[in-house]
């Protein structure tokens, strides 16, 4: 499907759903962390798949990718710059990963749970708006350069899919942990998704 230019009504509807999802995610993360969490969505962009991979360039990231299961198909990719992933682990586990060493099983499981909470909150908000059940798959965790991770996430597409990028700024006990969430709907699902959101 060719890149879809959203008009104001579609963008406003999608932004509202994303904000609702992030509010739910903040509540769930607060319960997980035992600390106050707020999440803002300062920017929502709709991009062409082929133009996304340059966004993070040479920054080291931790990525969590989940498939969307249900009436809408596609995937969700959560990208955390390495320093922010380390900060989240420090807040949750009391200490961050050791410099130069791979993530431990506990650290990987912790980040996957955070990814699951964020993806589930987004999909619940989207599903409620669409009156559909949308579920995330088990997250797959990877690390590497941001551009490489994005390229791998999009390699199954024809490079022309529409990608919704949600910049989410997490604040945990006044410590900022920003990240980006990429919603990559399957081409066949995008038009139906947007049409249902506006109703």
UniProtKB/TrEMBL annotation:
Signal peptide: none
Keyword Hydrolase in record: yes
Pfam families noted in UniProt: CheC
CDD domains assigned to the protein according to its UniProt record, in alphabetical order: CheC_ClassI (cd17909)
Keyword vocabulary terms for this entry: Chemotaxis, Hydrolase
InterPro entries for the chain: CheC, CheC-like_sf, CheZ_family_phosphatases
Matching PANTHER family: PROTEIN PHOSPHATASE CHEZ
Protein's UniProt name: Chemotaxis protein CheC
Organism: Geomonas propionica
């Amino acid at each position: 499907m060719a890149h879809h230019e959203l008009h104001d009504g579609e963008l406003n509807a999608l932004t509202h759903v994303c904000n609702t999802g992030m509010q739910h995610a903040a509540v769930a993360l607060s319960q997980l962390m035992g600390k106050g969490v707020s999440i803002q969505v300062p920017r929502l962009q709709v991009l062409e798949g082929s133009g996304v991979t340059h966004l993070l360039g040479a920054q080291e990231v931790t990525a969590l990718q989940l498939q969307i299961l249900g009436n809408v198909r596609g995937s969700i990719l959560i990208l955390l710059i390495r320093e922010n992933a380390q900060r989240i682990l420090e807040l949750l586990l009391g200490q961050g990963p050791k410099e130069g060493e791979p993530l431990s099983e506990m650290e990987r499981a912790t980040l996957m749970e955070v990814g699951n909470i964020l993806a589930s909150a987004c999909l619940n908000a989207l599903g409620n708006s669409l009156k559909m059940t949308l579920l995330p798959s088990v997250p797959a965790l990877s690390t590497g350069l941001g551009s490489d991770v994005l390229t791998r996430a999009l390699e199954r597409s024809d490079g022309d899919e529409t990608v919704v990028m949600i910049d989410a700024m997490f604040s945990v006990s006044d410590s900022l942990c920003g990240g980006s969430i990429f919603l990559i709907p399957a081409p066949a699902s995008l038009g139906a998704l947007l049409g249902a959101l506006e109703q």
